[in-house]
Amino acid sequence: MENKLGVQISPKSNLDYSVSAVMPISTLYPDNFRIKNPPIKKYSQEAVGACVAFSIKELIECFNKTQYGREIEVSAGFIYSNREKTDATFNLDTGMFPVEALYNTKKKGACEQKYCQWIGEFKEVKDAVVAGTFLPKEAYDNAYNFRIGEYLRANTDEERMSALMNNGGLLICIPITDKYKNGISEQISPDYRGGFKGYHCEITTGFKTINGIKYWELWNTWDYSDSEVNGFNYIPFGYPISESWAISDCNNADTKPIDINQYPKEFRVQIKSSGLKNFKTKDEAKSTVTRILAEGFKNYALVEDKKNGGFYIQVGAFYKKLDAVNRQRELNNKMIFNVAIQDIY
């Protein structure tokens, strides 16, 4: 069976939220790590360029198992067909922009597999999607329960490893050349294009050191062969990654009563309105976002506080309180005030 490639490379934007704006970035990592809760099972995208949709499906399943202990299979077919007429990929026969697909999954979610078992190219259902007749209303109602809170661009290996260790699962896009193989791939330079076929999207479930070389561990959605290593493929650190994304609720850690011997696990730096209260509206918060971007602060996330209402702007998360205080001072020096440090236990 032909393995189709379905990634259209997402344009970069200063408005992309980075992993380091939402979760702490460690400076020490183990040689080997695998997430405790991989996707529910091995999937095959068949001869369809739906690797982005299948990877987002797997990312949601990993996240739900890791954060909430829920093992629920969601539909790649729903994610692949969930497009707006204004989307750049709406008129493409195959493929998706990862950032566009993530945005639509944040907006409408992903229904359980039982509501949508379709696997095919978007052109097959395009007219039905426009007419609103592709799926019953109950599928969309169910999907709304599985919206992602936020999608976060991982720009560095440190952000990628931290996202894996904090959240479980990471979506990555890589070029497919004659050097890529089921099993262990060799290193290639960023500009290598020998036998280039296009870009592919997979889930990273960890990293592993093999013969002194550190590799990303990949959970693919192509048909499998005996050449894999215990069901996984591996690419070395330094292999060109065109983009990578994690998902997060951004606000999924509720503060709990503190034992006398319990210490904060992280410190979040947040910009709020006067009196350190949440901004009442998203537009009110956006005006401050414009200001911090103008001052050169690119690590931020605009977060809806579902517990207390309103919005705040998160500009970093740290394991050490001193690092959080330094970020607070850095913002204060730019005359950006109302900066709070929230201890998360």
Topology:
Layout lengths: L18 H4 L10 E2 L16 H18 L7 H6 L16 H11 L17 H6 L5 H7 L6 E4 L3 H11 L2 E7 L21 E13 L2 E7 L13 E4 L6 E6 L17 E6 L10 H13 L6 E4 L6 E8 L2 H13 L5 E6 L1
Antiparallel strand pairs: 1-4, 2-7, 3-4, 3-7, 4-5, 5-6, 8-10, 8-11, 9-10
Structure description:
The protein is of the alpha+beta class. The chain folds into two domains: 19-248, Cysteine proteinases (Cathepsin B, Chain A); 266-344, 2-Layer Sandwich (Alpha-Beta Plaits), CATH 3.30.70.1070. Helix content is 26%, strand content 19%. It contains nine helices and eleven strands. It has helices at residues 19-22, 51-68, 76-81, 98-108, 126-131, 137-143, 157-167, 282-294, 321-333; strands at residues 33-34, 150-153, 170-176, 198-210, 213-219, 233-236, 243-248, 266-271, 301-304, 311-318, 339-344. The strands form two sheets. Strands 1, 2, 3, 4, 5, 6 and 7 form a seven-stranded antiparallel beta sheet that branches. It has a four-stranded antiparallel beta sheet with strand order 9-10-8-11. The chain starts with 18 loop residues before the first helix and ends with a strand.
Largest sheet: 7 strands, antiparallel
Helix content: 25-40%
| Rg measurement, Å | 21 Å
Mean pLDDT comes to 87
- Give the tally of structural domains: 2
Keywords:
345 residues, alpha+beta, Cathepsin B, Chain A, seven-stranded antiparallel sheet
